Amino acid sequence: KLDWKTVIQDFYQPFEQDLNRANQLIKKIEIKEEKAGKDCPKCGQPMLVKYGRYGKFTACSGFPDCRYTESMNEEAGVNCPQCGGVIIALKSKKGRKFFGCSRYPECNFSSWNKPTGEKCPECGDAMVEKPLKNNQISIICRNTQCKYTKEMEK
């Protein structure tokens, strides 16, 4: 049986040398600041594109004095069926893509499937694109109680 101090020492001395060698070889990576092309609505300084754990976002270049940020979300190309705002693609905390209204929290529209901009002829709710297993898309009503499905054109 080995003494724990000996085991740690036998491991750490060569490891420390490798670590020091790696620190000397590694070059610092500089991430160039990308300008967003607009000014901060709070303080007027230029906005910068930054990268976070949920993707790209814009932040004020006056940080930490000004902490204004905006998310950069792709637009779905359709208007919100509830309020007429713009539908944008968002990511949930678990990284799953969903679609919601840009006017949140005033409007609470959200859907896992991409809205088409059409209304269901039976119940009046939004129609959404539902991906199928064969790489095709089915147009269905967002309302789970309504079973309306739009037939696909061939």
Summarize this entry quickly.
With 154 residues, the protein is mainly β. It has one helix and twelve strands, in the order αββββββββββββ.
Count every beta strand, where a strand is a DSSP E run of 2 or more residues.
Answer: 12
Structural domain count = 2
How would a crystallographer describe the biggest sheet? 4 strands, antiparallel
* Strand order across the largest sheet: 1-2-3-4
H/E series: HEEEEEEEEEEEE
Question: Radius of gyration from the CA trace?
Answer: 25 Å
Q: What percentage of amino acids are in beta strands?
A: 35-45%
Poorly predicted ranges:
none
How many helices? 1
Average pLDDT works out at: 85
| Silhouette | flat
**Pairing-aware structural class of the strands and helices?**
mainly beta
What does this structure look like?
With 154 residues, the protein is mainly beta. The chain has 2 domains: 34-71, no CATH class; 75-150, no CATH class. Helix content is 14%, strand content 38%. The chain is built from 1 helix and 12 strands, in the order αββββββββββββ. Strand 7 (97-101) and strand 8 form a beta hairpin. The protein is flat. The model has no long low-confidence stretch (mean pLDDT 85).
